[in-house]
Amino acid sequence: MRAVADFGADVQKVEPPKGDPLRRTGPFTRGGQSAWFAFLNFNKSSLIIDANDPSANIRLTALIDDCNI
Q: What's the count of helices (H) and strands (E) in the chain, helices before strands?
């Protein structure tokens, strides 16, 4: 999905409430961000969906219904 994001597609990464575990994986930039996470998710936006939330299925279904791929 990174390639389509690089070409201008609106790619949304769905993460759990604590975020993608890769966010906490080194090596880290001087600003404290995971270099791997930054590289793999460049040009993407993130949103949180808690699988334990009763509205999670509705939110995810709405995202899927709105997809162009």
A: 3, 2
